[in-house]
Amino acid sequence: MAKFAWRYSDTFEYMEQTRAGFPPAMICVAVNGGIQGKETHDQLPERPEEIAEAVYAAYQAGASMVHVHARDPRDLTLGARRIQDWVEVNRRIRERCPDIVINNTTGGDLQMTMEERLSCLDASPDVASLNLTPDMSRFTMKARAAPLPHPRTETEIDVCIPFTYGIVENFAAQMKKRSIKPELETYHTGGAWVIRDLIARQLIEPPYLIQTVMGAQTASYPTPENVLQLLKELPEQTVWLCSGIGPFQLPLTTLALLMGGHARVGLEDNLYHSRGRKFIDNAESVKRVVRIAEELNRTISTPAETRKLLGLGAPSPQ
Fold first, then answer.
1. Torsion angle, alpha carbons of 136, 141, 147, 151, to 10
2. Does residue 220 contact residue 214 with C-beta atoms inside 8 Å?
3. What is the pLDDT of residues 154-195, one digit of tens each?
4. 30: left (phi > 0), else alpha (psi -120 to 50), else beta?
5. Rounded to whole angstroms, how far apart are CA atoms 306 and 300?
């Protein structure tokens, strides 16, 4: 019988699970982000009603989890800082998709305080993302022109978001207090140190939902070799979710499905279906990964199966 969690890098466990049949593939859709908006893709949702509509289309296509960034209605180029804005987004998602697993970000935007990043937790998500290490990046942010609301000029960004052991521990403690499962985001092998520290402090409980983020700046290079190395260092009872940024999304989410893991897609991570051709919308990115999973003889996890996989209870009322 297939297990929900095992050591993905173990040769003999891999062969055993291949014979038994891998568990249903969990598809997480990251429908938007905290930085880029409609200036990069006209189907990247910003307002609550747009977010809920995008989630519903992805849910209909096969997504059982949504990773979501609420935006600040006072300035849609920024992430939400107020609890009421998060409540509104989650309520609208839950109305359209009663059983989907809602995964709110604590990543926020580049200007948030750590306290503001925690505002999403009081909106009763099932899961919340938790970055494990400092996040350093440098890039050019595209201009946002009228008639889009809240236009801005092209901006050069050079930033480091300084997550520390203490900050990560506080985030994990706040999630545990509210019975929210952390989605542990590791960008490189240094994240394994922090995961083991959280386990030792009894701040997280199995099964551990761990996402390997491949292709982000200052992350491990996005290669199969580095994915395998990351997997070797993850604890037992890990449920592995893989994301890839830009052109690395397709090969590395496919690798995850081949290995019995799970895939994250969506316009936050990758705007392009192929060179020169953008995805129509988030739902199209879900449809492609669903098709790939089915070709690999993976069934697609329903929201109920995803809740069982992650040890979650029934959806919280919004």
1. 70
2. yes
3. 999 999 999 999 999 999 999 999 999 999 999 999 999 999
4. beta
5. 10
Strands 238-244 and 208-214: parallel
pTM above 0.85? yes
Q: Which residues contact 74 (CB under 8 A, 6 or more apart)?
A: none
Radius of gyration of the chain (CA): 18
Structure tokens belonging to residue 270: 């990758």
**Which pLDDT score is estimated for 104?**
98
Judge whether 293 and 300 are in contact, CB under 8 Å.
yes
Which homologous superfamily does the CATH classification assign to the domain defined by 11-310? Aldolase class I (3.20.20.70)
Write out pLDDT tens, residues 200-211.
Answer: 999 999 999 999
* 195 in Cβ contact with 184 (< 8 Å): yes
Going through 14-134 in order, the beta strands assigned E by DSSP cover 27-30, 65-68, 71-72, 75-79, 101-104, 127-131
Would strands 101-104 and 208-214 be described as parallel, antiparallel, or unpaired? unpaired
